[in-house]
Write a structure and sequence with these properties.
heterodimer, A: MetI-like fold, globular, B: mainly alpha
Chain lengths: ~300, ~300
């Protein structure tokens, strides 16, 4: 959009989509978050092409090679190698796949559970609401990290177990937010008129309620993705999550921990990657909230 | 008030009961504890003997009933690993976790409430942006990584504090900062939002118009009302911190209940894990109950609802 069109648009009153576009491109956090996230997603998708080495290939003669910015570093191993001589950059790129996968699948599972619970509680009220509220309270009272650790330990750590456990644990915020958003709109005229027209309950929920709580849903999806990614990293760090030799970032930090005193970059690099990913997702979530509902900004 | 109290107390008891039922069945669904206990290379007969010795051959509900009945009297059975009563183990470790939790929540309150107030008094100022920056960073920083980085900087390079252990107050400094920082963004945001809303209220304008000193208006009139939702959140955050202590205590080898939980999980010590899950949820339930009551006392409108 150039300045000329902005001016004329302002005079005649910009269209809704133009207003939206402008809000998006003026939102600093949204752009930064979106940019970093796109870069990480691309890195994960193109890991096969971008990674200079096989992330699992060990080279015991070349362990703890320094990254390129240190004196002994070389462009062959840009981010150095780990305790088994595996290329750190390649592991980092493939590790992004694990984090993104965990975030997406967990948010999907917990999103479906939480949305069904929250929307039904908000729409039907009464006994349904009481039961859902009770379940939310129970869930919040369970120490997530402890329960997740215990269950993963019992079932054995694998990507599938971690994703399932986190998905079954992290639905509380979806339920809380969907419940209150549904309550706010269930009494509005367009819902009443759909009822008067004789629409089935399912149809009202899907075509009248869902589209209007979608903005809030997307924001919670971003929050819970970030939450799941942090938890997976923490579980893997403690040895009760994704198992070696998978290049989970949490696992990389855990493996680098033994060399904390001598090679601190081993934990710094995957840590910064983790931080950047969480930061980007949070920024994106906040940005979406601001852009779609500017009146909600504090 | 009494009715409100009893209703909340009943709900809290029901929640704690449900949590114990879930955690018990989870550990059961997960497979045969006898195989894990008998260890590698055990014969079928060994496993069967372990099963009978620990009572795993009885129906699950019967086992749960027995466990719950004992748990109500404070008897959580013997630890599989230490062969001593679980309740003694927990009683020995929980003060350390409580100390850590209280230190961390105090740290979080001391950092976040003043920042939240200052940010609300001057929105979009430098201090508001600094507060926002801190909370954005805090939300994105994985706590275990933050802990490791602090160890590298303050314990290894500067040598100001010990790397790990729990023998003196100096061992608690880094864990307090890591755990407390984790709770800071939420408390700060809520304080800021509450203050922004309250500062627009008519009675604040009236107070100012009467010529009351700005500091007094801010802290006596405004903060008192803005802080009501923060009380509840703080209790909830303290509860979350107990869960987070599992990670933090493991990093710093702080010998509390969280570290015990982590080690017991690694050692398949089910009675200890079971007891700790129940105790952590009970503490959380009690904290939220306390917060509800405190809120009802601070704000009579809540009692009516």
């Amino acid at each position: 959009m150039n300045a000329q069109t902005v001016d004329t648009a302002e005079n005649t009153g910009p269209s809704q989509s133009a207003q939206m576009r402008r809000r998006i491109f003026r939102h600093f956090g949204l752009l930064i978050g979106g940019g970093i996230l796109i870069a990480i997603v691309l890195g994960a998708l193109l890991a096969g092409a971008l990674a200079p080495h096989d992330p699992y290939a060990q080279d015991l003669a070349n362990r703890f090679a320094d990254p390129v910015w240190k004196e002994a570093g070389s462009w062959e191993y840009i981010l150095g190698t780990d305790h088994l001589g595996r290329d750190y950059l390649s592991r980092l790129l493939y590790g992004a796949r694990i984090s993104l996968l965990i975030g997406l699948v967990t948010a999907l599972i917990s999103g479906v559970i939480g949305t069904i619970m929250g929307v039904s509680a908000g729409y039907f009220g009464g006994k349904v609401d009481a039961v859902v509220m009770f379940l939310i309270t129970v869930r919040l009272s369970m120490p997530v990290v402890l329960v997740a650790l215990a269950v993963v330990a019992l079932f054995g750590g694998s990507l599938l177990v971690v994703v399932t456990v986190l998905g079954l644990l992290l639905w509380d915020r979806f339920a809380v937010v969907m419940r209150s958003s549904t309550m706010q709109i269930r009494g509005l005229d367009y819902v009443t008129s759909a009822k008067a027209l004789g629409c089935s309950t399912l149809r009202i929920l899907l075509t009248e309620i869902m589209p209007n709580v979608l903005n809030n849903l997307i924001v919670i999806v971003t929050l819970e993705m970030a939450h799941a990614i942090i938890l997976e990293a923490a579980l893997s760090f403690l040895g009760l999550g994704v198992q070696p030799p998978l290049p989970s970032w949490g696992l990389m930090i855990s493996e680098g921990k033994n060399m904390l005193l001598f090679e601190p970059w081993l934990i710094t690099i995957p840590g910064v990657a983790l931080f950047a990913l969480i930061f980007a997702i949070n920024m994106l979530g906040d940005g979406i909230r601001d852009v779609t509902a500017p009146e909600n900004r504090n | 008030m009494l009715r409100f109290f009893l209703k909340r107390l009943g709900l809290a008891a029901l929640v704690a009961f449900t949590v114990s039922l879930i955690s018990f069945s989870l550990l059961f669904l997960a497979g045969d504890p006898a195989i894990a206990l008998a260890g590698e290379g055990a014969t079928d007969a060994d496993i069967e003997a372990v099963r009978i010795q620990y009572g795993f051959d009885r129906p699950v509900l019967e086992q749960y009933g027995g466990w719950l009945g004992n748990a109500l009297t404070g008897d959580f059975g013997d630890s599989y690993y230490f062969k001593t009563p679980v309740i003694h183990l927990v009683a020995e470790k929980i003060p350390i976790t409580m100390t850590l939790g209280l230190c961390a929540i105090s740290f979080a309150i001391l950092l976040s409430i003043p920042l939240g107030v200052l940010a609300a008094v001057k929105p979009n100022s430098l201090i508001d942006r600094f507060a926002l920056f801190l909370s954005v960073i805090g939300q994105a920083m994985p706590s275990f990584w933050f802990g490791l980085i602090l160890i590298v900087i303050f314990a290894v390079n500067l040598g100001w504090v010990p790397v790990s252990g729990s023998d003196s107050w100096r061992h608690f400094i880094l864990p307090t900062v890591v755990l407390g920082y984790y709770a800071t963004p939420a408390i700060m945001r809520l304080t800021r939002a509450g203050m922004l809303e309250v500062l627009r209220a008519d009675y604040i304008r009236t107070a100012r118009a009467k010529g009351i000193r700005p500091g007094k208006v801010l802290f006596k009139h405004a903060l008192r009302n803005a802080v009501i939702p923060v009380v509840g959140l703080t209790a909830v955050q303290l509860g979350f911190m107990l869960g987070g202590s599992v990670i933090i205590e493991s990093i710093f080898a702080l010998n509390g209940a969280g570290f015990l939980a982590f080690e017991s999980i690694s050692r398949n010590d089910f009675p200890t894990v079971q007891a700790l899950i129940l105790i952590f949820s009970l503490i959380y339930v009690l904290l939220t109950l306390l917060a509800d009551l405190l809120n009802a006392w601070l704000d009579p409108r809540i009692r009516e609802a």
